[in-house]
Fold this sequence. Notes:
Layout: E1 2-6, E2 15-19, H1 25-38, E3 47-50, H2 65-86, E4 95-99, H3 112-131, E5 138-144, H4 150-159, H5 163-170, H6 179-191, E6 198-202
Parallel strand pairs: 1-2, 3-4, 4-5, 5-6
Helix pairs in contact: 1-2, 2-3
Amino acid sequence: xxxxxSRRACDVPGVTNHQFDLxxxxxxxxxxxxMSAALPPHPAAITVIHNASTHHEDSVLSFESGKMTEALNxxxxxxxxxxxxxxxxxxxxSSIIFVGSTLSEKAVSGRASxxxxxxxxxxxxxxxxxxxxxxxxxxxxxxxxxxDTPMLRAAMAKGGGDAEAFMRxxxxxxxxxxxxxxxxxxxxxxxxxSINGSILHANGGQKET
Length: 209
């Protein structure tokens, strides 16, 4: 069974959709109850993948609390609420996978809430690795680089410039990563509990500046 929890429905056949906005904590609590009730009484191993995020343009020099609050709700608080409802139903062999970013361990200007939230995602993952010690549930954080998604395409179009030239200069692979490549990295994390507590970067080899 595959359950999608997001504002928009997933159109992949066979997916059960639960439409909530995890930027609002009351909806996150309702989503947790919905997901918990949707699971069978004695489920097999469960994998939870936290991928919700926002990508605001903001700076600490003109701090906007609403943007920061939404980013932290999506990346940290709501995932913790969902995990709290699901962990009691998770058997040994289950996993909780977080999707971070290259910016989980570095920063750029003009993305204060995104950078902060993605750093916090790593801290939350590491906390689960410690607090779930001995439960047989493993966790990891996958940190994608420049991935071919509508969100990134929109940001590139807004910024102007030659995106292909940028990729050749800044990414060793010389291209955007595909969503399928990131998905395969997530599957690797699910299938390999030995990486419990780890950060896995999937960025094609970015040039350090």
